[in-house]
Amino acid sequence: MSMINQMDIEEFDAEWITLIMSARKMGLSMEDIRAFLRSPFQPKKYAHNTTENDPCMSP
């Protein structure tokens, strides 16, 4: 079962709306935003919140 509740979803939705509106005010088209979100250069999501594979955290 998901740990995200309705209030979290509403908060995320409000953040996304703010981000999209900011991007639109900067002159980005919806297609520009979609292309950015689909970009293969986006950071990868990791299953675990560890620093063992993070090159910035290496000694």
H/E element string? HH
Strand content: under 5%
Helix segment tally: 2
Rg, Cα atoms, Å: 16 Å
In helices, the fraction of residues equals: 40-55%
Shape assignment: flat
Low-confidence parts = none
Mean pLDDT: 77
| Class based on secondary structure composition and strand pairing | mainly alpha
Ordered list of secondary-structure elements with their pairings:
Elements: H1 6-25, H2 30-38
Structural summary, described in words:
By secondary structure, the chain is mainly α. The protein has a domain at 13-38. It contains 2 helices and no strands. It has helices spanning 6-25, 30-38. The longest helix has 20 residues, at 6-25. The model has no long low-confidence stretch (mean pLDDT 77). One of its GO terms (molecular function) is protein dimerization activity. This is Sin domain-containing protein. It comes from Paenibacillus pectinilyticus. Residues 3-41 form the Sin domain.
Sum this structure up briefly.
With 59 residues, the chain is mainly α.
Offer a few descriptive terms:
mainly alpha; Sin domain-containing protein; 59 residues
